[in-house]
Amino acid sequence: MKAPKILKLIRKLWPHAFLISFKLEVGLSRDDLIGRAYASLVENGADLVVANNQDEIAGDKHRAYLINLHKKVESQCETKQDISKSITEVLSRQ
After folding, report:
1. pLDDT on residue 40
2. Does residue 4 lie in a domain region?
3. Could you list the residue range(s) of the whole structural domain that residue 67 is in?
């Protein structure tokens, strides 16, 4: 059973919160992944999206892209630790 999407509700309840969403896809090129993740960011009113391709997650490897409101890749991460560090850096600038 798929979990309900609550991002729009969170944005409505807390309009000034810095909202980070996550987008996991399978089998997409880097550009297609970024495009879908950005579309999700816009649709849900998020400020940042962490985009992952399931094909690039194995063992210690966990590639992710942090994409901002301008469809710019803020950071390309290679591990879960890189992802958390990059999110922390983005949040510290807010």
Report:
1. 94
2. no
3. 11-92
User: Is 23 within the bounds of a domain?
Assistant: yes
CATH number, residue 42: 3.40.50.10300
Q: How many domains, the chain?
A: 1
3-class secondary structure, 15: coil
Within-domain flag for 1: no
Separation between Cα atoms, residue 23 and residue 89, nearest integer Å: 20
Give pLDDT tens digits for 3-18: 667 888 999 999 999 9
Give the pTM.
Answer: 0.89
Average pLDDT over residues 66-90: 95
CA angle 32, 92, 48 (to 5 degrees): 20
